[in-house]
Amino acid sequence: MTTSRTVLVTGGNRGIGYAIAEEFLAQGHRVAVTARSGEGPAGALTVRADVTDAESIDRAFSEIEAELGPVEVVVANAGITRDTLLLRMSEDDFETVVDTNLTGAFRVIKRASKGMLKARFGRIVLISSVVGLYGSPGQVNYAASKAGLVGIARSITRELGGRGITANVVAPGFIRTDMTDELPAEQQQEYLRSIPAGRFAEPSEVAKVVTWVAGDDAAYISGAVIPVDGGLGMGH
Description:
45% helix; seven-stranded parallel sheet; Rossmann fold; SDR_fam; alpha/beta
């Protein structure tokens, strides 16, 4: 049985983040989620926060610490897309995605690390994407932001690895969510052909990898990129 921890999942009100929060709850952890709107799963503490605003993150952490205790596990999952081809991509399209997906993760981790250093224990899990290392047309901004998370995890591992803190990246491929369900059938078939497993993942399959890498059994894993993509990226 994994030790019960205080866990924060950013963007835990829908999709993969919601599934991750559900899985941590099912395993008996104390779970908080940040959301700009909506709610996390039943049993989780939902706090309002925007990862592009350091003050709102600080307030959210203070609220969680008062209610559930210091955050021991942080899952940086909040992310957005603004897909468009390079020549049409505005600076705002690029900067907004990087500020949310990459700088947002930095802000959350920086705030979380204070308590982790004091406790000499911490688990940082960054939710990247197969696109971060594999690339994708129309996603220069998104891919850059998701690739950057690998550099964050590896630098934190070198900086804080001796203090009982690990930092790892989980890189999902195509996951069955509301977004993929809405894709035209032809496009779904095209994507499926490129995935050796021949199917999309369930959100719970990503969530179980996240809880495992944040758990006691993975204490000696840090700076790793764990793909959950049915073989699509093949270790890119």
